[in-house]
Design a protein that fits this description.
Length: 126
């Protein structure tokens, strides 16, 4: 799949931090802290938990975008790919459009304009 090691390490690091930060947040919610000095710990645990969940879901999204490529669609639905173009595997329509996803993944979604089914993803050209 060719993921940069930085992305994998980033998601792995925050995955490891998500459980302790969730435990701190649950502990604070159910048991509470007596002194005001622990409020910083609660706020930081909340930030780490939110960042870690975001990193995990971003990596899952990138895996989906990179695995469901045109090569995957061509291998999976060979009878819907010809030299004239691509057709939808669900309804058979040849009205395929592409739209930018606009979520900083720099990928385009190719979908059927007849039934709305997503066919595959491709990286945006610079």
């Amino acid at each position: 799949m060719g993921f940069p090691m930085v992305q994998i390490l980033f998601a792995g690091f925050f995955s490891l931090l998500s459980l302790p930060s969730a435990a701190i947040l649950l502990w604070a919610a159910f048991i509470g802290f007596e002194d005001r000095s622990s409020e910083f710990l609660i706020v930081m645990a909340g930030f780490v938990f939110i960042i870690s969940i975001n990193a995990i879901f971003s990596l899952r999204k990138l895996i989906k975008f990179r695995s469901k490529s045109f090569a995957w669609y061509k291998a999976e639905h060979a009878n819907h790919v010809s030299k004239n173009g691509v057709s939808c595997f669900s309804c058979g329509s040849s009205r395929i459009h592409a739209r930018a996803l606009m979520n900083h993944t720099y990928h385009r979604e190719h979908f059927c304009s007849q039934c709305g089914k997503t066919l595959y993803y491709s990286p945006e050209e610079a």
